[in-house]
Write a structure and sequence with these properties.
It is a single chain. This protein is α+β, with helices and mostly antiparallel strands. It has one domain: OB fold (Dihydrolipoamide Acetyltransferase, E2P) (Beta Barrel), CATH 2.40.50. It has 6 helices and 12 strands. The longest helix has 10 residues.
Length: 149
């Protein structure tokens, strides 16, 4: 697992570094996505999570959910065209889970990508994510996860 400035980034995931979103392939053809530890640390504890409803289509670069913390409100942008198949109802009820368990119970939504093979090629594998994240954190002037813990 890569750790960049105290932020954990598991090797088995794919990342959209620019938007601080991770993706996990599921055996049933769906893809689970969530906020990275970096996003969770930058946003602070979430106070609201409003996902798109299951059955809704989401276009590449558009929001599949809105997340809100005490200091930030913004979109969770998806990196490819997809249909939302499941939302994390537990996260709707307890938004703080996104920061407490970003790679587990804090996932955002599950989707079926229109063209996963193509989308997958545009994402960064966990085994290669440390350098791009170090550069992004430097550009964003983000000290790291330990500073905000």
């Amino acid at each position: 697992m890569a750790t960049v400035r105290g932020c954990e980034l598991p090797d088995d995931l794919l990342y959209d570094v620019e938007n601080n979103i991770w993706y996990r392939e599921n055996d049933d053809g769906t893809v689970t996505l969530g906020m990275t530890a970096v996003a969770a640390a930058m946003a602070g504890p979430l106070v609201a999570f409003t996902p798109k409803k299951a059955g809704r289509s989401v276009k590449d670069g558009k929001s599949c959910a809105t997340v809100e913390s005490g200091k930030w409100v913004g979109p969770a942008k998806i990196a490819f065209d997809a249909e939302v198949t499941e939302i994390n109802e537990e996260l709707v009820a307890n938004p703080k889970m996104a920061g407490e368990q970003p790679y587990g119970a804090g996932w955002l939504v599950k989707v079926v990508p229109e063209d996963w093979a193509s989308a997958k090629g545009r994402l960064t594998p966990g085994t290669a994510v440390a350098e791009p994240y170090e550069a992004k954190m430097a550009a964003d002037e983000f000290a790291g996860c330990e500073e905000l813990a």
